[in-house]
Amino acid sequence: MLLGRGRISIVERLGISLGLSIALVPLGLFLLNILLGVAVDVRTTLALILTLALIGTLAALRRTLFRLRSLSITNLDLSGHLRKAISAVRAGGAAKLLVLGLIMGLAFYIGMIPRLDYPYPLHSDEWTHLAEASTIVTTGEIPRYDAVTEEPRSDPFTGEATSSVHMEVGYHLFLAEFQLLTGLPWLTIFRFLPSSVFALTVLCAYIFGSRRGFGLEAALFVSLVPTTVRFLGPAFAVPVALGLLFVPLTLFLVSHLWASRGLPVILLLLLSFLFIAHAPTALFVSLIIGVHGLFQTFRPALARRFARRRALAQLATVLGVIGLSSIPFLALNTWLLEKTAGEVALPRSLLLAPGGIVSYVGYIPFGFFVLGLLVLVISGRRSDRALLAATVLLALFVVPYYWFRVGNGALYNRSVVYLTLLMLLIAALTTSRIRTWLTMALRPRWAGGAAFIATGLVVVGLLLPSLALGLQSRYEERYYRRINEQQYQDFVWIRDNLCPGYDQALIDPKFGRAFAAITGRHVYAGVPLSALPSGSPLVQEAKQVLQDRVPDTAWLRERGLSIVYSTRPLSNPELVLVHDGVYVLPPSEVCTGGTRQVAAEPDTVLEEFAQAPVTSPHQ
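Below the sequence we write its predicted structure tokens.
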């Protein structure tokens, strides 16, 4: 509707619709809760979805109202748009769509490789997002406190307590929306949703390359985007994995639909969501938009005054959209600019050496990327030169950071992933050019089958080896696992058997985020979400107290701690062992009358628990 009828195919319309659907509902929930205090629940989510669908339907009907008079019973089934869509699908070929489906299935499997034998979230970031999203679902509100420790969010620069939402609240709302609509368990969502999003990212890569004839190559190469503990990636349930989907989608919009009047509106909606879901992705997408806008606007073809004025107006509107979409994020995170200016640089041992990018991307794709740089340089297309310029600008940030460490460490971490994605897209473009050159070379001898033979040679000689090496590296990649099955069962026991008064626990900080996400309770300290070595005083204090086997119960009471989870036996007689590794203060101190008490195991129950009233069928 916003981009005009007949300008985009069914697959392209599907990709844009998916991107808008992912962005609009969390964005709407965010605005309703922050501005009006509307609860985030199933009813609000469904009402918002129906409202957005109704608005879109009414707008589409208004646009086509003048055509209603031409409709009749005899031609309802011969709609020009329907026949055009069907012919487009036939022209594209069912075989191409089948191959696309197989590549999306491959991407889903690649995203599942780290979780094939592990049903729990892998990365500490995932546990944090699970804790934040589950808090939204449970309370119906966007928390303005740390969902792991229940402490006020602190200004990272000044250390002062603030009443601020999480920087990536848009992603938490996306997860909460998905859980509210599906009712799936959180562990199921975190196990399968990242692979599903990765498959959609591959679809958007196909959409970006399809008009240029390298859609399938783009889809296949993007399925090889790596996932590592250090730089994250599409196999993790993290905001950057969702943000990757919007990169090829934005490239398609600005490369092929720049002059559309509805483009600024779409970009405003997408960027507004990205700024509250993952600011680094929003900044990178803004870079792509700005670079493409400059190449589209300042070109010799716009010699006429009217055309140049219109192009400048479009550029000014789009640049204004970038600034406007960032306002809610900056208003709720006023410390961000200070943090960026004052952040400590990452040590070189945590950085990716310039030569390491070769093995990170893959040797064969990197070779295609280098050749692709030459292809883009000699290309006369503005979109090719804009893609080259965006890639060079990003590389000029990533590579010098290793030597001089000037800039923001968080942006560097995510820029490595974005740069990899751009390099793989350029490698895909190069592969399609090689296929075209082979077709032209073979045509004099095999006129009828030149294209088929060239495709076979590219697939067997280039694509399959790239895929094989990529899969091998995914199998060899190592991921840490925060908890095991026993610890998960212990946390579930705490969630189901301790009264609500047992709200905060002392636990090894490396388990803290998983504990909070599973139990819905809070911890004294959790490992910070930073690549820097942990220097938090609370983290160090928690480790020391546990190492000393918690000798001082008064220390626990002063800090409001009523649970201790330890893999080592404790020697404090005032703590009661109620489950393997679970020590608590007596229920007479913690649980009020009429609330659920502790379901203690017979061999560990003490007199205080034997006398406690039973108020729950779970006991």
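The two ends are 58 Å apart (CA to CA).
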